[in-house]
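Deliverable D2.4 — example input (structure tokens):
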């Protein structure tokens, strides 16, 4: 009877409980009597009543090596020696802890972070969390107290729901969970925080609100139909997408978004996009800086400059009357078109068709109301306003206001300021060839040319006159040997002096800061002092670089010892903007493109310090 009772109990247990088998269902040890699992393979599992192991989701005293649970009951507070509290309520025999104390980890191994508050006994928990786990993958900064990410690496953004870093394709610049700039050929959909490839509707678009474009690429502007149109013939564009400077020969349009040629303009100011001088038979209207005809309209006939609807200056050969109309003047008796051909009595017609009362005058002027040049062997006495015989101290003199000395010599002569006499400058072997003035007032000081005649350039080193712009030393008037290195680069291929203090164009950047190019004229060979030649044949400033990575400058000096911004093409650029970090607009190096922390970029390319409210 008793044996039958024992048999029934065993039979009941075997029927109600599944059969436990070691190595299955994460069980490492079974009870031979009850056939239940009494030890699981992994520390994060605990035996259940069905003969297998359950995933531990709450703290259980006496199980998984836990001695004491937290007050919330979901995490283990104190574990057996050699075991450490894990994230799911139990204790783990983990290899991720490098140093432990009293059963608690105080230092994790490499690529693991110790998560938890410092005050453990008041409810804190410290665990080792894998830095490349799903929660921290691509995370740049996270909270040490709970291991939750709050700042992602560049190109990744924080998902506000699960606090994980997600990748937004083709984003080149971001801030926390917001993309700021997309790769070239993509535009930023600010509504959905995505970079989308430019298409027909969003061609050359940089940013959109999800429906229409709101910001265009550089050298494009947003037209009325919300599409991006090209800014033609523009040299520099501001942050608003408007043109700041047109290329030579073109002028700003009224809308400020494009450059157009002024067909009747003879000379313009490319910096301000306005015409300075119109062609013949046209005058400048200062209201719109346009060239308009001065032949047909009565009020503007022969006018040169019109301001507020009133003529303020006439073309050569005509004078402005009290009625603000232009008429023949300066005693011109008869003119053909705009050229005087006959003067009134007592006046003389010069070779440039000006009427003057100065006898023996060859060329006259409306502007100085006198003579510009007298007949040969005569000079113009500006004090007495007459042409006088050039003799004594005035031999080969052209003009003077002083009764005793010449002040300007005739062509082919230069003025020596020491004796105030005119000497020939025609000999090309003479160091004063084509010189206009020679000056020295001290003894034992070598005479030097200080100014050249028109169309000649004074070398900064040899002080000789040459026809080659920017030439410092020339072999003759047509061949330069060395350029003025401070302002010009010597192109070995063409033997030309090219300005090196401004960027000609993006494919001629090797002239910038260059002293001499290679023989092919395709890259710089020698830089100006203080600059280094990089692998692209461009002169860069690395002296003021304070942070390098892989031999490339990451950050420039920006402190009381000097302010420099980082330019991807030319290295460190000196700038008068303390908060500027990067300046990558090659056509305007003084325009900042990225600011230091604590500063923000305004519409004018300047970094403004952020003020605390």
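Example output (designed residues):
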């Amino acid at each position: 009877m008793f044996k039958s009772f024992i048999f029934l109990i065993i039979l009941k247990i075997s029927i109600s409980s599944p059969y436990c088998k070691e190595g299955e269902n994460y069980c490492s040890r079974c009870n031979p009597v009850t056939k239940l699992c009494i030890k699981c393979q992994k520390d994060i599992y605990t035996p259940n009543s069905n003969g297998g192991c359950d995933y531990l989701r709450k703290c259980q005293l006496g199980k998984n090596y836990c001695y004491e649970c937290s007050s919330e009951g979901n995490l283990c507070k104190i574990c057996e020696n050699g075991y450490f509290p894990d994230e799911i309520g139990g204790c783990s025999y983990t290899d991720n802890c490098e140093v432990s104390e009293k059963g608690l980890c105080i230092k994790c191994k490499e690529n693991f972070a110790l998560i938890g508050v410092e005050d453990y006994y008041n409810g804190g928990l410290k665990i080792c969390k894998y830095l490349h786990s799903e929660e921290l993958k691509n995370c740049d900064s996270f909270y040490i107290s709970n291991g939750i990410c709050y700042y992602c690496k560049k190109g990744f953004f924080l998902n506000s729901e699960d606090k994980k870093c997600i990748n937004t394709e083709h984003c080149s610049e971001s801030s926390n969970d917001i993309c700021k700039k997309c790769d070239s050929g993509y535009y930023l959909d600010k509504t959905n925080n995505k970079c989308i490839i430019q298409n027909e509707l969003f061609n050359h678009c940089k940013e959109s609100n999800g429906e229409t474009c709101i910001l265009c690429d550089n050298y494009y502007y947003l037209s009325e139909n919300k599409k991006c149109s090209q800014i033609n013939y523009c040299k520099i564009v501001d942050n608003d997408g408007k043109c700041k400077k047109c290329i030579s020969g073109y002028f700003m349009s009224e809308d400020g978004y494009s450059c157009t040629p002024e067909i009747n303009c003879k000379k313009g100011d490319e910096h301000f996009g306005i015409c300075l001088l119109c062609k013949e038979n046209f005058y400048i209207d200062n209201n719109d800086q346009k060239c308009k005809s001065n032949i047909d309209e009565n009020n503007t006939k022969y006018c040169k400059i019109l301001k507020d609807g009133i003529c303020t200056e006439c073309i050569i050969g005509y004078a402005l009357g009290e009625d603000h109309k232009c008429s023949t003047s300066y005693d011109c008796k008869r003119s053909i078109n705009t050229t005087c051909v006959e003067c009134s009595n007592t006046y003389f017609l010069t070779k440039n068709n000006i009427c003057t009362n100065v006898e023996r005058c060859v060329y006259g002027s409306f502007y100085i109301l006198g003579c510009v040049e007298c007949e040969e062997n005569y000079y113009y006495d500006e004090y007495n306003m007459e042409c006088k015989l050039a003799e004594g101290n005035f031999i080969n003199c052209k003009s003077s206001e002083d009764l005793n000395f010449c002040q300007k010599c005739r062509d082919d002569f230069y003025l020596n300021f020491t004796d105030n006499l005119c000497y020939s400058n025609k000999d090309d072997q003479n160091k004063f060839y084509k010189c206009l003035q020679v000056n020295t007032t001290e003894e034992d000081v070598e005479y030097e040319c200080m100014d050249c005649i028109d169309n000649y350039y004074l070398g900064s080193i040899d002080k000789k006159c040459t026809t080659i712009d920017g030439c410092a030393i020339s072999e003759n008037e047509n061949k330069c040997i060395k350029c003025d290195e401070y302002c010009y680069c010597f192109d070995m291929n063409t033997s030309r002096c090219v300005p090196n203090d401004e960027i000609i164009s993006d494919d001629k950047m090797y002239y910038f800061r260059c002293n001499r190019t290679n023989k092919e004229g395709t890259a710089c060979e020698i830089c100006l002092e203080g600059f280094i030649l990089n692998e692209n044949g461009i002169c860069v400033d690395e002296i003021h670089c304070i942070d390098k990575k892989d031999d490339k400058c990451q950050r420039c000096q920006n402190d009381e010892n000097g302010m420099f911004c980082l330019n991807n093409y030319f290295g460190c650029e000196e700038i008068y903007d303390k908060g500027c970090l990067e300046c990558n607009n090659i056509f305007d190096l003084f325009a900042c493109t990225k600011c230091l922390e604590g500063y923000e970029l305004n519409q004018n390319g300047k970094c403004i310090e952020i003020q605390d409210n």
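The chain has one helix and 69 strands.
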